Amino acid sequence: xxxxxxxxxxxxxxxxxxxxxxxxxxxxxxxxxxxxxxxxxxxxxxxxxxxxxxxxxxxxxxxxxxxxxxxxxxxxxxxxxxxxxxxxxxx
Length: 91
Hints:
By secondary structure, this protein is mainly α. The chain folds into two domains: 1-39; 47-90, no CATH class. 71% of the residues lie in helices and 0% in strands. The chain has four helices and no strands. Helix 2 packs across helix 4. It starts with a helix and ends in a 10-residue tail after the last helix.
């Protein structure tokens, strides 16, 4: 393969395009990180969500003994699946 001016220019153009795409991707990543840092923490009015967040930090052994967490997870399942608390099919 013989290097001509045309081949060299094509190679330079491709390299410049790749560098421009890389720089654009890096700038987008930086902008997304800044946006994530500026976003306020989600504050929930739902006490069930707060209880579930606490329960997620428990070990499996502690979770077995914590009746409040067991009730919270049961309520969460009931809400998710849309069943009523006294539904005989959920037993």
